């Protein structure tokens, strides 16, 4: 990547991020968006501390997902302070060996000491169990998942379907099954393959209260 190109998309020190450029798939590629998102994540000390703590727990197939990732990006894109609007951290993992509530609850209790440094809740959920409680809570059928990454395809919006894991070599493994363009464009759209319109509207409008620049489709 040339220095001129790097400056244009905001990957050089002190260069602002152009969300219109980065959110346009015709003008920037997914690799560039992943590079920028990785830099944004590394610049947030609180998020990196959560990622390091999550790695230390050694959960199977784990990632920090959704809000804390794309909201951290939105704060950088709009010049808001770190942590603005971020209510919690979602830590997902996949363990099909024991689907009981008690097993998940024991793990949550065990993990609490790893996150004693943060004043925000860390919500830990076994994705192997989601199909057991989702239909009762939301009245929508939910087929059993096979891994944590598959859960992202059923998020309310492709914009929210972003997760990251800090590997042992300190590389950031970013997964976004629908791509990152919507997140950079600050555009919330409904999931075309998994519909929950009531929850989608509620969550989208809640996000818009903290980031009024958001464009919300499908409501």
Automatic annotation (TrEMBL):
MF term (GO), any: transferase activity
InterPro entries: NTP_transf_6
Domain of life: Bacteria
Composition bias, Polar residues: 1-15
Spans annotated as Disordered: 1-23
Keywords carried by this UniProt record: Transferase
Coiled-coil stretches noted in the UniProt entry, renumbered to this chain: none
Protein name listed in UniProt: Nucleotidyltransferase family protein
């Amino acid at each position: 990547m040339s220095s001129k190109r790097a400056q244009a998309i905001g990957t050089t020190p002190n260069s602002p991020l152009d969300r219109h450029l980065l959110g346009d798939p015709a003008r920037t590629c997914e690799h560039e968006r992943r590079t920028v998102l990785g830099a944004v994540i590394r610049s947030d000390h609180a998020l990196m501390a959560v990622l390091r703590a999550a790695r230390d727990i050694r959960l199977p197939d784990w990632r920090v997902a959704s809000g804390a990732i794309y909201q951290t990006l939105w704060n950088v894109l709009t010049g808001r302070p770190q942590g603005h609007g971020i209510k919690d951290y979602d830590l997902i993992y996949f363990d099909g060996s024991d689907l009981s509530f008690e097993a998940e609850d024991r793990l949550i209790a065990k993990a609490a000491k790893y996150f004693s440094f943060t004043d925000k809740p860390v919500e830990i959920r076994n994705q192997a169990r989601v199909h057991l409680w989702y239909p009762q809570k939301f009245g929508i059928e939910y087929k059993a998942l096979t891994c944590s990454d598959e859960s992202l395809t059923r998020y309310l919006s492709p914009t929210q379907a972003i997760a990251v894991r800090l590997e042992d070599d300190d590389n950031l493994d970013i997964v976004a099954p629908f791509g990152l363009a919507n997140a950079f464009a600050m555009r919330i759209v409904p999931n075309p393959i998994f519909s929950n319109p009531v929850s989608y509207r509620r969550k989208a409008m809640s996000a818009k209260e903290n980031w009024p620049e958001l464009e919300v489709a499908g409501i």
